[in-house]
Amino acid sequence: MNNSSPAVLYDRTLVFPPGTTNRVLRNVPNLTSLNYESEIVAYSAELQQIWQTPRQTLVVGARFQTGSTEASNDLAHQPPLAPAPSQLFARKVEVNLDRISAYGYETWQIFDGLQLTAGVSYDHLYYPRNVDTSPIEGGQTSKDQVSPKAGLIWSPAKDTHLRAYYAQSLGGVFFDSSVRLEPTQIAGFNQAFRSLIPESVIGLVPGTSFETYGVGFDQAITASGTYFVVEGQFLNSDATRTVGVFTNSDTSLAAAADSPSSTRQSLDYSENSLLVAVNQLVGSEWAFGARYKLTHSELDGRFPSLPSGTAGASAFDNLSSYLHQVNLYAIYQHRCGFFAQFDTVWSQQSNQGYTPDQPGDDFWQFNVQFGYRFFQRRVEARLGVLNLADQDYRLNPLTIYNELPHERTVVATLKWYF
């Protein structure tokens, strides 16, 4: 994988005035250009064994992943920080990633209406200290974690299900957490994450510890074709990472920062969500549905090496965001293979703690699609128009959401199921 991007550097520079102990994060103009390139090569091998009886399933396995990253980082001052573009920093590093994981999951069918899952995993991660935030460095660090897991599915009636889970886990660095045979779900909830903090907000946060839990209620009324779901999930992450900074060796704070360095940053993030969905079948050809999701995210980030009260010590101080989303849909399917779908999405977001203020957004989008299934429904041809009203939007990525088109978009797909 290659990643190359010219961009402005950042809005804050860590300044160390010589002969003093004061440290200040000061704002600087976006007058420093950045060229960053990275290439990742990674390998993964996993062995898993499953033992199953009518009342229990045992899954054990081990995974080894290794890889290397070659990254280059070039920065240059732009006028008026320099009379002409001049190189500030250039570095090329090659660092390694090694991950060893072992796990076991036991699922018991206690009786027909009760299923319990217990599990544990061990992860050893040896990863780059900072290969993402400029200026990069070539150091390595490691982390070990033992993570307990538990899940429950209780069915007091045939079409009534109560689900709950709790899990701890250790995040990855690049895409290592996504390449796995180890179970990614417990009681229908996802427990595999590379990072909970959206990377579009904070960038790469390697080796993050996660604590996640949730409850869900599923009800089906088969006589009327009604399906109802309520689900709550609570995600928390605690991480410390090394970030690149530039120090200023000049006594004047007006001078440009000129010396590459690094500092530690602690990050606390939580994401709580509530999901309510109702789906209704009408006859043999129509289906209607409504889905509401509320997501609340909070982020607190600090530089612990900076004295309390120092300007800029809290780079992400009590940021929070609420996102409401409503999805409505109608689907028509004919026995000949023709189908049509209309759906709409309403999004409303509010943000707190930002300077300057980020008001969020409030908008609707509408989509329509038509298609045909043939060859015993093994082939599907679909044509649609997304965002019919050509509605653009600006959402804060602090709350996770599925990316929506920013303009009217025509889509066409052809799928073949083997």
Question: How are the elements arranged and paired?
Answer:
Layout: E1 2-8, E2 12-15, E3 24-27, E4 32-53, E5 56-77, E6 86-111, E7 114-128, E8 140-157, E9 160-170, E10 185-186, E11 189-190, H1 199-202, E12 209-221, E13 226-247, E14 259-282, E15 286-302, E16 316-333, E17 338-352, E18 362-374, E19 379-386, E20 409-416
Antiparallel strand pairs: 1-4, 2-3, 4-5, 5-6, 6-7, 7-8, 8-9, 9-12, 10-11, 12-13, 13-14, 14-15, 15-16, 16-17, 17-18, 18-19, 19-20
Descriptive notes:
There is one protein chain. The protein has one domain. The chain is about 0% helix and about 65% strand. The longest helix has 4 residues, at about 200. It has one helix at about 200, and strands spanning about 1-10, 10-15, 25, 30-55, 55-75, 85-110, 115-130, 140-155, 160-170, 185, 190, 210-220, 225-245, 260-280, 285-300, 315-335, 340-350, 360-375, 380-385, 410-415. Mean pLDDT is about 85; it is low at about 1-30 and about 250-255. It starts with a strand and ends with a strand. With about 425 residues, it is an all-beta fold.
